[in-house]
Amino acid sequence: MAMLLPSPALLALVFLTAQVTPSTGSYKCVARDFGHDSVVCECNSTYCDSVGSARLPGLGRYSSYLTTKAGSRLEAGWGRVKENGSGAGLKLSIVAYQKYQKIRGFGGAMTDAAAINILSLSADAQDRLLEEYFSKIGIGYNVVRVPMASCDFSTRLYTYADTPGDYNLDNFTLAPEDVNMKIPLLQRAQALSPRPLSLLASAWSAPAWMKTNGALIGKGSLKGQPGGKEHKTWAQYYIRFLEEYAKYNLTFWALTTGNEPSAGQMANYSFQALGFTPEEQRDWVALDLGPALHASSHPRTHVLILDDNRLLLPHWAKVVLNDVHAGRYIHGVAVHWYLDSLVPAELSLGVTHHLYPEYYLFGTEACSGWSPLDRGVKLGSWDRAEQYAHDIIEDLNNYVVGWTDWNLALDQTGGPNWVKNFVDSPIIVDAKRDVFYKQPNFYSMAHFSKFLWEGSQRVGVSANQETQLEYSAFIRPDGSMVLIVLNRSSTVIQFDVEDPAVGYITSTAPAHSVLTLAWNT
Known about the structure:
Elements: H1 8-17, E1 20-21, E2 26-27, E3 31-32, E4 40-43, E5 61-68, E6 75-80, E7 91-102, E8 105-109, H2 112-119, H3 123-134, E9 143-148, H4 176-192, E10 198-203, H5 229-246, E11 252-256, H6 278-295, E12 302-309, H7 315-321, H8 324-327, E13 332-336, H9 345-355, E14 360-365, H10 382-396, E15 400-407, E16 410-411, E17 427-430, E18 435-438, H11 440-449, E19 457-463, E20 469-475, E21 481-487, E22 493-499, E23 503-509, E24 513-519
Parallel strand pairs: 7-22, 8-9, 8-15, 9-10, 10-11, 11-12, 12-13, 13-14, 14-15, 16-17
Antiparallel strand pairs: 1-2, 3-4, 4-18, 5-6, 5-24, 7-19, 17-18, 19-20, 20-21, 21-24, 22-23
Helix pairs in contact: 2-4, 3-4, 5-6, 6-7, 10-11
């Protein structure tokens, strides 16, 4: 489909005359239509739309933030809380005494590809992009996943210890990608953030000389057995990574036991992987990683197992967490969103939570455009925004405490990616024009990341009748309430929100929309 694009002169005029909403300090979206079912918002070195600080009005009023297929992007509004409902029929009742999990946070991954794309922009445009994710006026990301060495979203294959037989890791060294790109950007993100970022490390593959197949890619696992020299060296590799990043004042909240261990058990797998069965992962944590971390200068770093698709639950958790020797070193279970449609959330996430309530569930990777049937970048895809919002709500309603997107930024092809595994991202960079586009799913993420602060706790919410709306409610650390509503249907749905502590909010969910309501109690 041909794209109708404005002239450079017209775009400049749009940027210069873009309206600021004085009441909220928000800046409006400069919309661009690339021929899909919605629009992107274009940002440059001097201008980017923003919802601002999103302060709540006083008691007796509520704030609303609306994003729609039709083009609204975190459109701010407010209204009065009333003593009685409108009689709309549908009523969502807040049940504040029903309390569930507390939120850890939301974010994305600082891959090599993300760093390359961010740094391809001018310095001022880089600042705008990082502000959109991490600053007070941005969308509140507080989690950043950091690959340990290369992954598919790198331009080459490498680890930090590629010298064969280097069991003492004498030649361990961070890569130029870390020192020159990822670390400086993480430092800038941290400087912009009003709170400490929760960094999360994941490794894709051990060095080839430690592996059964002698390669970073394909089917292969660590040589020997847990407790053996390869397994102990691999555990020390994690410790060295934490130590090296700490030299740059970057400390990690958590690490995972390895990205998608099931991939490394598949023949002809095309990019970096390290195979583990749940039994091998259990024993490696118990004998090697756990003791190494406990004895290191980073004993408080959390350990998350699995880091793979939720269809492997609850079996994987049962194998690992039933072992007291492994379980004492573990804090949570990390899940990816791929193939979520193949297994109901309540049978994977829900069962795992009820079996092991002391371990939290955390989403560590998701992206659009990964499926062969729906591949790569789609600028302005609303369907992908709905997929994000649906999956996040489903996860939150099944005890997940956070949700991490994949690449923070990609180019218009969905890369760079050395194996051509191109996907989509909430921010797409056009380096030639020194602009970046915020996709509809950027705003999907915002409806959660900006309003569900760390420490927010999910509470009960019930509907008085069947509805197509999807929803989740939370009480924030300051006592304010947040309700997030997704309408994937093609009809407008009116509803009342009943909060016994304050009264009724009458609201409307437009067709194909995400709506966040927030109010003081």
